[in-house]
Design a protein that fits this description.
The chain is α/β, with parallel strands linked by helices. The protein folds into 2 domains: about 1-120, Rossmann fold (3-Layer(aba) Sandwich); about 125-220, Arc Repressor Mutant, subunit A, CATH 1.10.10. Helix content is about 40%, strand content about 25%. Strand 9 (about 130-135) and strand 10 form a beta hairpin. Helix 6 packs across helix 8 (about 190-200). The protein is elongated and about 60 Å long. The model has no long low-confidence stretch (mean pLDDT about 85).
Length: about 220
């Protein structure tokens, strides 16, 4: 699940981002309204956690712009404003949920998971490619009925491939989705994880699901 944190308090942004990444989310972060608009336009997020008072703009205006533009990512408003009228204004702007500061990091994680379950097009959140099934909520992968043990990162990459089955994803897209824009890793980090996934998903099967698209990247398809 890919989450964008829009929060101008850099310390809070960092704490929230680290907690969500440790909880298994792919997290991007930004600190002002202009950066938020650019990242929302150029990426596909499952959930956006949005502060209201931002340098360069208002978080609620960004939410209104998203809805007018047909961007349907679930949005959770995170703010110090706790009056009932503020909550109503936020929800009327198009937000899906509202939390006030201070807040529990564990509750924030739970709210994000709930938003994803509620708004996903796939209500069961179970995907199938040939004889591979992926249960997103229970974090279980099976091939030909046999459960496959995956690390958090391996599962996240497999989920990204499965959600975009048949679409060629570049190494950069996978890296940005699984890590974030501040990540500077090995040039072959994606290849390392794809190789590990192939050993777990495709080894021992005549029909290979994970494909290399020459000069582009990777995809998964029947």
């Amino acid at each position: 699940m890919r989450v964008l944190i829009v929060e101008d308090d850099r310390d809070m942004n960092s704490v929230v981002s680290r907690h969500l990444m440790a909880s298994g989310f792919a997290v991007d972060a930004c600190f002002d309204a202009d950066a938020a608009r650019a990242m929302i336009q150029n990426n596909c997020y499952d959930v956006i956690v949005m502060d209201i008072m931002l340098p360069g703009g208002d978080g609620l205006e960004i939410v209104r712009w998203m809805r007018q533009s047909g961007i349907n990512a679930a949005t959770l408003i995170l703010t110090a404003k706790d009056a009932i009228t503020d909550r109503i204004t936020g929800l009327d702007a198009g937000a899906d949920d509202y939390m006030t500061k201070p807040f529990s990091l564990d509750e924030l994680s739970a709210r994000i998971r709930a938003l994803s379950r509620r708004l996903t097009d796939n209500r069961d959140n179970v995907y199938q490619i040939a004889d591979l099934t992926l249960d997103i909520q229970r974090r279980i992968a099976r091939r030909a009925g046999k459960e496959i043990e995956l690390s958090m990162r391996e599962f996240a990459i497999l989920e990204y491939l499965v959600r975009n089955a048949g679409i060629a994803l570049s190494r950069e897209q996978i890296e940005h989705y699984i890590w974030n824009y501040d990540y500077i890793g090995n040039s072959n980090i994606v290849e390392v994880y794809i190789s590990a996934l192939r050993k777990k998903i495709d080894a021992g099967h005549d029909h290979k699901l994970i494909r290399t698209i020459r000069s582009v990247g990777y995809t998964i398809k029947e």
